[in-house]
Specification:
Blueprint: E1 9-13, H1 19-27, E2 32-33, E3 43-45, E4 60-63, E5 69-74, E6 78-84, E7 89-95, H2 97-102, H3 104-114, E8 123-126, E9 136-138, H4 139-142, E10 153-155, E11 160-163, H5 165-175, E12 180-183, H6 198-204, E13 211-217
Amino acid sequence: MQSDRLEIAHGFLTGPQSDRRELDRIGGDAPTALLKQVHSADCIVVGIDFDFESRPEADAMVTKVPQIRLAIVTADCAPVLLQDADAGVIGAAHAGWRGAHGGVLENTVAAMEALGARPARIAAVIGPCIAQANYEVDDAFRAKFERGEHRFFEAGREGHWQFDLEGYAAWRLSLAGVEDIDRLSLDTYANESEFYSYRRATHRREPTEGRQFSAICLTE
């Protein structure tokens, strides 16, 4: 899959145990850095000494080392891939509502800055995620957000709201100084022939082990 600004790898994973095997099959020779994603705001730096057999507990990572693939696994949350081409720095973040609300995207941009990137040069892509029309939440969910963030909610049935995760993630990126943001606007819930959706599977009482990945890698 390709946006106007960044090339990204995207595909399906059949279950949590197949992540690295599937990614290595699709991605070629570059080793894959994966995380134990916990809906946090934590971001790590992946260097040449990174243990690729481990999965640090975090939800974002950055690197300036060529030929290391950063891969984020999602099932409705927003995968966000970032690049400062001039500085040779990339990042990948798992932005569910909790991570985005907690600052995972701002932390990713800050970690890229520490490696020499500048927010004004960063190009970001927000990959496939659940769209507002299919992301129903209740009053208690909306109450977790500040009044100024309520514009990302549209009224739904009584006591419920439709949350714009993609729009919210783009806004949080803009708060970090990123202006070049490509929103792919691909709905994981509605497009069942292309994407896995945890929420769709839950509603249908289907297996919920499926995942998809989005990855980014620096070339030499």
